[in-house]
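Model it.
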Amino acid sequence: MNDDTADAPQLYLVTPPKFELHGFTDRLVRVLDAREVACLRLQMPGADAGDLGRAADGLRDLCHARDIAIVIADHHRMVGPHGLDGVHITDGRSLRDLRADLGRDAIIGSFCDASRHAGLSAGEAGADYVSFGPVRPDAMLGDGSVAEAELFDWWSAMIEVPVVAEGGLDVESVAALSPSVDFFAVGREIWDREDPLAALEALGL
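Modeled.
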């Protein structure tokens, strides 16, 4: 996962929570072949192990053929068997334990709601990136708090760990946060639209 903070924020895609693999990969390939993407997160809450495994294998091949990292949300035991690049933690699991299990080369990211303290704790525990959000009210992400622009401004000025903004992104929040974030994690903002590429363009990404 490229974390070159000298450049403009990079694109970090998040899968829909439910999808049919063949239909989704057709849409995903259009985006991957039209945009520079740093990472894809497989995030299917509630899916059974079989569906997760099939999705992981299919999406891994698409990503690795394009030199794009792929991480899975929370299911860290699937990283090794399915050849994934790492895990994105949303459940407060110990990052130090995960690092011991997955090794030094695995990507470990941590979603920290809108909590500066949680972000600092994750960074100190060895997270490769932290994610804050939602940036606007979003009933499907986080604990109900909103990650304000001041949090991202402070983080980018004070902390070296790369930071991701996600949840409720719109054109105004993308423009406002671009100077302060390393990645924009984009999911429902584009997959819920008929044309994901047009939706990305509408966001200014």
